[in-house]
Amino acid sequence: MAANNQFQSKFEDNLFPVKKTLRLKGKLHYFSRPWVMGILNVTPDSFYAGSRSLGPLDQTKAKAAKLIAEGADIVDVGGYSSRPNASDISVTEELRRVIPVIEAIKISYPNVIVSVDTFRHDVAERAVAAGADIVNDISGGQLDKKMISTVGKMEIPFICMHMQGNPLTMQGLTDYNHLEKEITDYFSRKLKECREAGIKDVILDLGFGFAKNLAQNYCLLKHLDYFNLLGVPILVGISRKSMIYKFLEVGPEDALNGTTALNMAALIGGACMLRVHDVKEAKETINLFKKLYP
């Protein structure tokens, strides 16, 4: 019996290896259980129609209220669609989309954590001034060389994603000699750059669907625990993505069941955070995961 308990302990340590932390405005948060980031796209052209919200502010606020009511730990507000071949928009337009929404959420829900999904340092700066707590950059500072230094000066957490190229070119940039090693090397360099800039808390996002083909996406998910060696929280964002709906031969609107299945795989691999369109289902998945691995 003792040997079995020892094996179970080691197995569970591998699933959720060390207790990761996140400092937000002077408060230290422990990932005693994984968090859910609810997606709030203030765009007309996101890949999943159910996540689009570019109507009256009251409608967007209602969507945010639903995410919060269902238990979102973070609301991620984005005004620039990063789907392949999405239309480019100006900084002015991106600000027009996201700033009123962030301000409205913070007025109604001052204790809710808000992240801004942007790769532009000036949008990040204005968003934090409006109340955003975290910057979520799909390019990890690659598309705007001022981003990392700006976040460092603001002393807030940074979500650093891996992507090659940009949303217009990434689909053709899927050549890797050793997928896991190259992404780990990228994150090692980024962590050093972030720390030198004064960013104390970095969350890593492997960038499922960004410059990765179908096989590579599943390879990364299968070997997610490999990236726990970096010692920082891992975010997984696979909600309703093409790696699910194309494989199942359905559309994004029918990819919730597949999302739930792969979110459980991500939790078993050590994900500290799930970025999702469907908060209620993600919270239920986490509850079941914690029942299996308390």
Spell out the blueprint of helices and strands:
Elements: H1 2-15, E1 21-24, E2 27-30, E3 35-41, H2 57-69, E4 74-78, H3 91-108, E5 113-117, H4 121-130, E6 134-137, H5 147-154, E7 158-161, H6 179-196, E8 202-205, H7 214-222, E9 234-236, H8 242-248, H9 256-268, E10 273-276, H10 279-292
Parallel strand pairs: 3-4, 3-10, 4-5, 5-6, 6-7, 7-8, 8-9, 9-10
Antiparallel strand pairs: 1-2
Helix pairs in contact: 2-3, 3-4, 4-5, 9-10
Which descriptors would you attach to this protein?
294 residues; 10 helices; eight-stranded parallel beta barrel; disordered N terminus; TIM Barrel
Write a structural description.
With 294 residues, the protein is of the alpha/beta class. It has a single domain, classed as TIM Barrel. 42% of the residues lie in helices and 15% in strands. The protein has ten helices and ten strands. The strands form two sheets. The protein has an eight-stranded parallel barrel with strand order 3-4-5-6-7-8-9-10, surrounded by six helices. It has a two-stranded antiparallel sheet with strand order 1-2. β1 and β2 form a beta hairpin. α2 crosses α3 and α9 packs parallel to α10. It is globular and about 40 Å long. The two termini are 19 Å apart. The N terminus is likely disordered.
